[in-house]
Amino acid sequence: SAAEKDGHDWFMRKEIFEQPRAVADSLIGRRTARGQLQLDEMRLADEEIRELDKIIIIACGTSFYAGMVAKYAIEHWTRTPVEVELASEFRYRDPIVDNTTLVVAISQSGETADTLQAIRHAREQRAKVLAICNTNGSSIPRESDAVIYTHAGPEIGVASTKGFLTQLVACYLLALYIAQVKGTRFGDEIDEIMEQLEEIPAHIDTVLADADQVYELAREHVSTSSVLFLGRHAGYPVALEGALKLKELAYIHAEGFAAGELKHGPIALIDEGLPVLCVVPPKGRDQLHGKMLSGIQEVRARGARTICLAEEGDTSIEPYADVLLRLPKVPVLLQPLVAIIPLQLFACELATALGHDVDQPRNLAKSVTVE
Ligand code: G6P
After folding, report:
1. Cα(10) to centroid of ligand 1, in Å?
2. Residue 93 — φ and ψ, nearest 5°?
3. 108 in ligand 1 pocket by Cβ < 6 Å?
C-alpha cells in the first residue's frame, strides 16, 4: 500500500529517499570523544590487522561495485593491497589466500549463494573472513569470523539503493579503522574524514531536493535504446552501478566505462545523440578532473549528448555539458555517496515512465540463493 511506501509509488523510491537517514545511522557511535574510531563488533584483534598482507573483497551485483569503491579507499588510506573479485569467479581460479589474507564479503541479504560459497572456500584456505551485511543472523555473517552490520533497515526493492550506500559507509569505516591500527600517515586525518562523512546525509538531501530535474531528464529518454556511463577513479564504479540500475529497471542497454578506456574501444560506439552520463571527479590536486574533461570533449565532438554530474562551482565543465547536474563538494573518495543518487533517480523514473514494475523487475530476484 501507499502507506507502507511513505506515499511513494515504489519501495525503491522510498528507499532512495531514506538514504540520508541510512547513512547517518551507519555512522552512529563510531567516533569516541578522543577522536578514535571504534568498530567493536568487528572482532578482529589489532595484531591480526597488523599482520594482514592482502585484502580480497568478494561480492556480486551492486555489492561488487561497493567493493570496487572500497579498493580505492582502503589502498589509499591503509597502503594494504586490495583485490576485488566477483564471488562467482573467486573459488574457481585457485586464488592465493592464506592466514594473512583478509577476505571481505559484502552482501546486503547475507544469503547470496555465490558469495557464501566463496567465503567457505576462503576459510578452507585459512583466510579470515569479515562480512559486511545488512541482515542480522543471515548465512554469510554466521559463517564469517567477523562482521560489520550496515544499518539500512529492510530493503524491499530488488535493485539495491540504501543497501549500497551503507555498504560504502561500512567500507570507509573499515578502511579508516585499519589505517588507525596500522598507524599509516592517514591515521592523523581520520577525524577530518569522519567529519566529512558525517556531512554526507545533508549533502544527499541537497541532491534529493533536485530530484525533479533528474525525473524530467529521465522522461526525455523513454525512447532511448542505449546509454553510456563514464567515470574515473572512485567515479568508475559509480558509472558501472548507474548502468546496472538502468539495465535492471528500464531494460535499456547501458554500459559503464572507465573514461580513460574510451580511446581503446568504447569511443567507436559514440553516435549522434547517444546519451553519455559523465561522473566528473572533483577538482583536486591530481589530474583526474582535467583528464575527465578531455574525455567528455571527445565524445561530444563525435555527437554524444553529454549529461554531466559535476560539483558545485565547477565552471570549467559548462561549455561541454549538454545537461549539467550539480553535486555537493566532497572529496573524490567520498563522491560515490552523492554521485550515485541522481543515477538511481534516473533509472527509477525512466522505468516508471516505461510502465515497468520497479520493485520487481523481470527475471531478477532480491537475493539469489542458487549458484
Ligand atoms: C541480486 C540483487 C542485486 C544485488 C545482488 C547481490 O542480484 O538483485 O540488487 O546487488 O543480488 O546481493 P547481496 O544481497 O549479496 O548484496
Report:
1. 18
2. -115, 15
3. yes
- Give yes or no for residue 367 CB within 6 A of ligand 1: yes
CB of 156 within 6 A of ligand 1: the answer is no
Only one residue has cell 594473512, namely 100
- Find the 61 Cα to ligand 1 centroid distance in Å: 5
Nearest to 281 by CA among 321, 331, 210, 244: 331
Report yes or no for ipTM above 0.90. yes
pLDDT in tens, 51-75: 999 999 999 999 999 999 999 999 9
Cα 248 to averaged position of ligand 1 atoms, centre (Å): 11
Task: State the cell numbers at 175.
Answer: 578502511
Burial (CB count <10 Å: 0-12, 13-18, 19+), residue 106: buried
C-beta atoms surrounding 21 within 10 Å: 16
Cβ 160 under 6 angstroms from ligand 1: yes
d(CA 91, CA 143): 16
Separation of alpha carbons 201 and 216, rounded Å = 24
Render pLDDT for 22-54 as a digit per residue (tens, 0 to 9).
999 999 999 887 778 888 777 888 999 999 999
Q: Is 19 in the pocket of ligand 1 (CB under 6 A)?
A: no
**How far apart (Å, rounded) are the C-alpha atoms in residues 79 and 178?**
10
Nearest alpha carbon, ligand 1 atom 8: 366
Task: Cell numbers for 326, please give them.
Answer: 550539480
Residue of 293, 291, 289, 309 lying closest to 301 (CA atoms): 293
Q: Dihedral sign, CA of 11, 14, 19, 25?
A: negative
User: In the annotation, is 366 catalytic?
Assistant: yes
In angstroms, what is the span from residue 298 Cα to ligand 1's centroid? 34
